Amino acid sequence: MSAPTLETIRIAPKVLLHDHLDGGLRPQTVLELADAVGYSDLPADTGPALGDWFRVAAHSGSLERYLEPFAHTVAVMQTPEALHRVAFEAVEDLAADSVVYAEVRFAPELHLERGLSLEQVVEAVLAGFADGQRAAASAGTPIVVRCLVTAMRHAARSLDIAELAIAYRDRGVCGFDIAGAEAGYPPTRHLDAFEHMREFNGHFTIHAGEAFGLPSIHEALAFCGADRLGHGVRIVDDITDDPASGRRLGRLAALVRDNRVPLEMCPSSNVQTGAVASIAEHPFDLLARLRFRVTVNTDNRLMSDTTLSQEMARLVEAFGYGWTDLQRFTINAMKSAFYPFDQRLALIDDVIKPRYAVLAG
């Protein structure tokens, strides 16, 4: 059995649960959209230079500074045409990386500066995703892409966004999320939004346990009822060394593992924000060995200059994973998707397992 390499991982079927639309633009697209809308504040005037700027700026050591470069991508995503193009290209890029299922998230409330309504924003993105999926199928790289609508945790529109999630759930929106700086903005500020999602049997994930610790995870699960945790990397703070058993799980960590709460882990992004010091020191491997439901994700492909294949390859290099491990992480993600059970099972049994069997053979 040959060890996975970046080249072979690129052809393996992959599942992506945590990817931000406004963090995954092509640098050249940012330039062209800025020119179209008259946005003149970009820090570079060529695609390669702009890509380098985003990567360096995002490698900031804190979540708050990591989020600052998004002002440029959001600024050029204020028209239906721009939103459609960015969504379409996201599908193209993911399909080219052999992603077979993806949930891509964005915050509709950030795209209203030129007079669009929340509904118009969502419809433009969904149309881009739909057109992208048709093009990918025609090119022989079929992919399913669904949308998570995100509310900003420092703002006061979360109930509006939760209502959008329910209104559009039969048209491509699969769930709801809150994002933004964690410190000072606990998820319990948005209980009415989560109650709305539960009332209508909607799915939601919460950014928790990235830049803030165990209290953020506890609130997301105990008070808000999150289905998944965005990042969740700080759950490791509730795991201690035990001379007898090797590791001892605290009550919160045990709850997360016992209830199979999916962890949407984004290794490169966690290094950039200072959540961990390096990929080699990332708790992903510890959590994987302890059989938490870990999944591999990109977070922001532009800011982290990454793809899902590259994220997997970095984990292979750091921890020596083989094809069996990568298949497990992929199936973890597919099991955790906000997608009907029979369709999840079909992707696992008809696409993921057979193609990994060939790669591992």
Quick summary:
It is an enzyme of class 3 (hydrolase). The protein is of the alpha/beta class and 361 residues long.
How does this model look, in words?
It comes from Mycolicibacterium brumae. Catalyzes the hydrolytic deamination of adenosine and 2-deoxyadenosine. With 361 residues, the chain is of the alpha/beta class. The protein has one domain (6-185, 203-351): TIM Barrel. It has helices spanning 6-9, 27-37, 47-58, 63-67, 70-75, 80-96, 118-138, 158-167, 191-199, 214-223, 251-258, 267-273, 284-289, 308-319, 323-336, 341-360, and strands at 14-20, 99-106, 144-152, 173-179, 204-208, 228-231, 239-242, 246-249, 263-265, 294-296. The strands form 2 sheets. It has an 8-stranded parallel sheet with strand order 1-2-3-4-5-6-9-10, with helices on both faces. The protein has a two-stranded antiparallel sheet with strand order 7-8. The mean pLDDT is 95.
Major sheet strand order? 1-2-3-4-5-6-9-10
Low-confidence stretches: none
Shape: globular
Find the CATH superfamily.
Answer: Metal-dependent hydrolases
The largest sheet, given as strand count, sense and whether it forms a barrel, is: 8 strands, parallel
Please, how many domains?
1
Class in CATH?
A: Alpha Beta
Mean pLDDT: 95
Radius of gyration: 19 Å
Strand content: 5-15%
Structural class: alpha/beta
Write the layout of secondary structure elements.
Blueprint: H1 6-9, E1 14-20, H2 27-37, H3 47-58, H4 63-67, H5 70-75, H6 80-96, E2 99-106, H7 118-138, E3 144-152, H8 158-167, E4 173-179, H9 191-199, E5 204-208, H10 214-223, E6 228-231, E7 239-242, E8 246-249, H11 251-258, E9 263-265, H12 267-273, H13 284-289, E10 294-296, H14 308-319, H15 323-336, H16 341-360
Parallel strand pairs: 1-2, 2-3, 3-4, 4-5, 5-6, 6-9, 9-10
Antiparallel strand pairs: 7-8
Helix pairs in contact: 2-3, 6-7, 8-9, 15-16
